[in-house]
């Protein structure tokens, strides 16, 4: 099933301690644009375990409660690995605009994972915007995406 951004549903967002600052800024930016955002935390810079926040975001997207997800941590690798344990999730780790574009066009990603310690906030915002506005290309990429799930 191809992901299509549904602006009538909230955007799920979560992070660990390394992503709190960017998460809060992204929430403000998205709500200023009229989007509803569901914050799954954390809301503190105190050390936490990223799976405790990645799983609820992934579950919200997987169930259809949220339109798509945004996850942040230091490298974004931990949250991406965690989210991708969910069968209906395709979480893409993005560190530049071209990658954010391709995870949507070629992989039909429904969660963007951002490495807060390795990208500027301005770039994080640009990547989220590209992620939201880029359609899945389908075709040969659809055939490949349909082979991802284990079930």
UniProtKB/TrEMBL annotation:
Gene3D superfamilies xref list: Sugar-phosphate isomerase, RpiB/LacA/LacB (3.40.1400.10)
GO molecular function: ribose-5-phosphate isomerase activity
Keywords, sorted A to Z: Isomerase
Enzyme nomenclature, EC number: 5.3.1.6
SUPFAM superfamilies linked: Ribose/Galactose isomerase RpiB/AlsB
Domain of life: Bacteria
InterPro entries reported for this sequence: RpiB, RpiB_LacA_LacB, RpiB_LacA_LacB_sf
Similarity comment: family membership: Belongs to the LacAB/RpiB family.
Alphabetized NCBIfam families for the sequence: PRK05571.1, rpiB, rpiB_lacA_lacB
PANTHER family: DNA DAMAGE-REPAIR_TOLERATION PROTEIN DRT102, RIBOSE-5-PHOSPHATE ISOMERASE B
Protein name: Ribose 5-phosphate isomerase B
Source species of the chain: Sediminibacterium roseum
Record lineage: Bacteria, Pseudomonadati, Bacteroidota, Chitinophagia, Chitinophagales
Gene label: rpiB
